[in-house]
Amino acid sequence: MRSSQHWRPARFGVATHPGGSLVGLPSWPLTLAFAGFPLWWVLGLLDFIWIPTACVMAAYLVTRGGIRVPRGFGVWLLFLAWVACAVIGLTGGLQLVRFGYGLASYAACTVVFVYVYNARTALTDRFVTGVLTIWWLVIVAGGYLALMFPNGVFHTPLSYLLPGGLLENEWVAKMVIRPLNQYNPDSYFQLDPRPSAPFIYTNQWGSAYSLLLPFVVAYLVQIRGSRLFWLLTAALVASFVPAILTTNRGMLIGVGIAAVSAAIRLALRRDPRGIIAFGLIAAVGVAVFQFLPTSDRLEARAGSPSLVDRGWLYMQSIEAVLRSPLFGYGRTLTVPGAVDPIGTQGEFWIVLVSYGVIAAVLFLVWFAFAFLSTLRWQSATGLAANTVLLVALAEFFFYGASPHGLIIIMVAAALAMRSRPPAAQPASPRVRTRVPHTVQEPHR
Predict the structure, then answer these.
(1) Cα angle value 307/308/314 (rounded, 5°)
(2) 433 near 5, Cβ under 8 Å?
(3) First to last CA, the chain
(4) Which of 7, 102, 165, 221 is the least crowded, having the fewest Cβ atoms under 10 Å away?
(5) Helices H, strands E: what count in the chain?
């Protein structure tokens, strides 16, 4: 991979759009993966869909050639290489399967990033934010479905096709037999059902909601004045109900970070209409919070031992890494008496325990660089993407991100890092050459 100090046109005999886009990369792979979310959930393929999607995208990228990547992308590639090396810590066949799934998920996120970064003609900012908004609407609909059927459990067709031996594995069973809520009726603390559909865990629902919300707002900005604007605004207000009833503290932290970031930027830009709109949305959210029966739920959650368990698991994760700091263990660790395996209380801890200290540093450095290098973008999509990166950097420490959350974050990074102020967009001539290579672009 070569690095360039100047913006260059794409190579490998492929004409490029003046904005740096590869001509011929279609939008349908991304659209089908995101907008087809309900179908993948019903079929039991939801947690696997990004891998075949990435294979299709990779085929288009290889066929078209002239792939561009931003400066700093080598950090992420080095992270992937380090993750692959962690395979030396595995001791069993099932561990190898789970490790392969995790590595394939990271690789899929990588391909999606490169595809969105290059397909600027087909995947415009408005188009991508619109597709992400559809996914957000599906998640909100799943939340309402969970509220209507608190004890509902959905057996996907795949659950009837898999051998019984595979279904006895808890990891496999959770992927193909989907409860609508995260709920344990036998729990001593008698916590209310918490919406999780279409995901496995409530934390996945809350993470996806908080990461997608800035894109929904960006899409609203782009369609203001249309009838769709008012319909989506109504959906935004309605989404507060399942979001709040999840009593998802991490989600509230993520939304709070996004809100504070938006308020500061609107104030710096001296945008009175934006400040008023933001204030109205915040007021509605507070009103819904006060109206819903959240106080009892929050008290019950506060009385649960989850925070104590998290703190203990964090300490156990650090102690485990000290015993294998270079490549980790290739997996999270099960400890007798622990509620959850060590290294499962956030993507940072998953990476730290599974792949080692250097992998964890590379992981954080990549996303911190993506955030800091795109702080100055002023477009609605650029601001939203940068805000998502900020929220992600906080949520990594208490939310698992792979695969679904990490896809959102990598799409955000691609949108942010391909954005440039209008003055910095040169006209790239059509260039044809027989020498294929990948051009690493400097980020300005």
Answers:
(1) 90
(2) no
(3) 19
(4) 165
(5) 19, 7
Other Cβ atoms within 10 Å of 414 Cβ, number: 25
* Closest CA relative to residue 108, chosen from 215, 165, 33: 33
Q: Residue 337: left if φ>0, alpha if ψ -120 to 50, beta else—which one?
A: left
Predicted model pTM: 0.85
Crossing angle of the two packed helices 73-85 and 357-372, in degrees rounded to 10: 160
Q: Give the single-character DSSP code of 330.
A: S
Q: Which two tokens stand for residue 40?
A: 């993948």
Divide the 444 residues of the chain into consecutive groups of 10 and give the mean pLDDT of each group: 36 42 82 91 90 96 90 96 92 86 95 95 94 95 90 86 79 85 57 79 91 93 90 91 84 90 79 71 71 59 57 83 90 76 86 94 97 87 93 93 93 89 41 43 48
Omega cis (within 30) before 242: no
Q: What is the pLDDT of residue 295?
A: 57
Residue type, 41: W
Contacts of 402 (CB under 8 A, 6+ apart): 102, 105, 106, 109, 347, 350
Residue partners of 356: CB distance under 8 A and separation at least 6: 82, 86, 321, 324, 325, 326, 327, 328
Nearest partner of 210 among 148, 139, 146, 281, judged by Cα = 139
Q: What is the pLDDT of residue 374?
A: 92
